[in-house]
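Fold description:
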Amino acid sequence: MTVTITNEPEVPSLARQLGFHANDRLLIVNCDDVGSSHSANVAAFRAMTYGFATSASVMVPCPWAAEAAHMFDGLPVGVHLTLTSEHSGYRWRSLTGAASLHEASGFLPLSTALAVAQQDADDVRAECLAQIETALAWGIDVTHIDTHMDVLHASEPLFTIYLDLAQHFAVPIRLPFQAAFSARELAAARGILSVDQLIYTWPRPTRDVMFEMVPTMACGVTELFAHPVLDGEELRGYDRHHADIRAHDAATLTDPSVLALLDRHGVRRISYRELRSTQRGNRR
């Protein structure tokens, strides 16, 4: 399924704030779940170095996150705030160790619903703060924050924590696809930037979605995010349900024909670093 959220751009539009024309089509291609495995790190690094991805988001509590901090040195990387651990045979814990953040097994909850039902807001805030501060301590020049499995999009109180962190660190965010509260307006009121349109391809093949949507992509700033992982025993060992999607994303983000598609339709690629610079400039 493909979900696209749009909004009528304000004046000046986000594109113009970034120094482009209002009718330019700008695309952030983000690699989610960096740090979740070595294979995810390699796939995302290849996508950003040899392919057309422009950004990544690291899951700080995961075992391979520290490797990612070194591997992606100098590249635009945000923090994929992580409050769940969804693979039944491959789990991770929080950084802070708060009891409300964990199941009886000692790991973060398997699902968003379980996380929202049991996690204390103060513990969530402390954990998310620790994840961002750890990324910074590792030398990651955090360009943005987003939220793994939409936990911080699940309610307005959780979204408020998300906004507090974005405002404190002066970084842009990824907004929810849909919410029972006015997420875009709440972010805008604090001067927090996000893209105009968001394309989520899962579970459809990302390449198919891009060939379908790029020719008619709206003006302004769009983010498309994917979950690239190199195929092999590691991936097949921990994600038995969605391995094909992740392997397809890895192949797509280095596919020259997709880059040619973007060039043919005049789509210019940027990263969250440009949004962050503009957001911080707007504070002066």
Notes: The longest helix spans residues 121-137.
